[in-house]
């Protein structure tokens, strides 16, 4: 179905204003009036379409106004009425360089006459000056708009529809978190929600594409197009690298506000059902530790505000020297993961908790395949002879139960531990082989 927009100007003499009507034209069927652009002025107008924005030039005042029909307008039940997004502004001045044999070094360029009566406008974004012989492409500069549109939510709605918006959006996010231009937390939350809404749309499109490719099972999938990631997709890596990690280093910002912002971003990701990357949780933990907010850290972990992960558990282990309960919190997290049994054993052995490691592998039924050498190495490093004796006997009993012989096989590489045991206790084993 072919679709295009037609624009019609209508002058209301009684109200001394000019409106532009936007019609939706289908390939089949009548045109339908969809939008009315309220100019609130009369005179000569010209129109361009740039980056999905309708730019209306007013010759009498030498200014232009911008309309964005994707922003929410006033719907009267039939059509949507739109006011200009921004106050009227003039096109940026342009200097025409003097060229040719008459040019003199250092001569000042001639300013171009803006909004000239000799201008000819072509769609979508071309302006021709017939008197001066120049052709221009009209472009939108997004950076100045940040200071003209004070409503951060509406500003974000506007920026997310633009082609080259990413750097400007990240700049706005950094600005609203700064000490000088700090925005209220509800405003920050609104911005995060809008960003993550676009982020979620892209993730869903990518997931649908993956499913379509997999379901094709080698058949031609020329009709399946991979979604294009536009600049409006601000993912977690973008926010972490360009905004949040920089924000947490600001000395003049209260730490309570920093924590609140980080948790608000995580809340927004959860609300959009986007899995939170572990480095965001790590940023929260490091910020809490930096400000000695261990009680808050404990609560976040206890009530699962921070989701379990192996990287997070490893980070907690590294905090044991400054916060001893972090060791047990890490073990509890690894146990809840149920896919980190090897990591739990390594953690316990690194802390010389050999018996605790043995009890753990027995509780999960993994003692039959456990490496005897690893446990004997750890027991020997403790310099506790009775602990070494207990661990040695444990694996002898395992060998007897599994193979009917308490001796270690050559593949277990426990010869040095057998020798060490004989030197300590005068014999290799008190256990008897069931085969003898």
Automatic annotation (TrEMBL):
Residues 162-410 form the Mic1 domain. One of its GO terms (cellular component) is late endosome membrane. It comes from the Eukaryota. This is Mic1 domain-containing protein. InterPro entries: RMC1, RMC1_C. One of its GO terms (biological process) is regulation of autophagy. Pfam families: RMC1_C. Transmembrane segments: none annotated.
């Amino acid at each position: 179905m072919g679709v295009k927009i037609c624009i019609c100007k209508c002058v209301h003499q009684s109200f001394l204003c000019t409106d532009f009507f936007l019609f939706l034209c289908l390939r089949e069927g009548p045109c339908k009036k969809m939008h009315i652009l309220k100019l609130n002025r009369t005179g000569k107008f010209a129109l361009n379409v740039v980056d999905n924005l309708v730019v209306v030039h007013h010759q009498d005042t030498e200014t232009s106004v911008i309309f964005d029909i994707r922003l929410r307008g006033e719907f009267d039940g039939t059509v949507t009425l739109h006011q200009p997004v921004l106050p009227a502004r003039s096109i940026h001045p342009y200097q025409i360089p003097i060229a040719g044999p008459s040019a003199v070094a250092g001569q000042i360029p001639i300013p171009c006459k803006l909004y000239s009566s000799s201008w000819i406008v072509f769609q979508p974004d071309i302006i021709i000056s017939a008197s001066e012989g120049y052709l221009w492409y009209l472009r939108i500069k997004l950076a100045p708009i940040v200071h003209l549109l004070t409503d951060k939510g509406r500003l974000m709605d506007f920026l997310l529809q633009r082609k080259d918006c990413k750097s400007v959006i990240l700049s706005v996010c950094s600005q609203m978190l700064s000490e000088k231009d700090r925005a209220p937390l509800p405003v920050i939350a609104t911005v995060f929600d809008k960003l993550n809404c676009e982020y979620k749309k892209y993730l869903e499109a990518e997931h649908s594409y993956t499913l379509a490719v997999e379901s094709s099972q080698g058949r031609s999938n020329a009709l399946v197009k991979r979604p294009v990631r536009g600049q409006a997709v601000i993912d977690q890596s973008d926010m972490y690298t360009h905004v949040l990690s920089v924000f947490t280093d600001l000395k003049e910002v209260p730490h309570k506000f920093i924590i609140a912002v980080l948790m608000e971003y995580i809340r927004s990701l959860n609300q959009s059902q986007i899995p939170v990357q572990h480095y965001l949780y790590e940023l929260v933990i490091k910020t809490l530790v930096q400000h000695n907010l261990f009680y808050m850290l404990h609560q976040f972990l206890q009530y699962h505000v921070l989701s379990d992960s192996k990287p997070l558990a490893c980070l907690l282990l590294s905090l044991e020297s400054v916060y001893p309960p972090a060791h047990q919190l890490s073990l509890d997290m690894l146990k809840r993961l149920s896919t980190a049994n090897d990591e739990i054993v390594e953690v316990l052995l690194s802390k010389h908790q050999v018996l605790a490691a043995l009890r753990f592998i027995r509780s999960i039924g993994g003692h039959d395949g456990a490496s005897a050498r690893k446990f004997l190495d750890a027991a020997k490093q403790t310099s506790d002879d009775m602990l070494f004796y207990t661990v040695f006997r444990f694996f002898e009993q395992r060998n007897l139960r599994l193979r009917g012989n308490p001796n270690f096989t050559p593949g277990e590489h426990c010869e040095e531990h057998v020798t060490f045991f004989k030197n300590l206790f005068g014999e290799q084993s008190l256990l008897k082989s069931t085969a003898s």
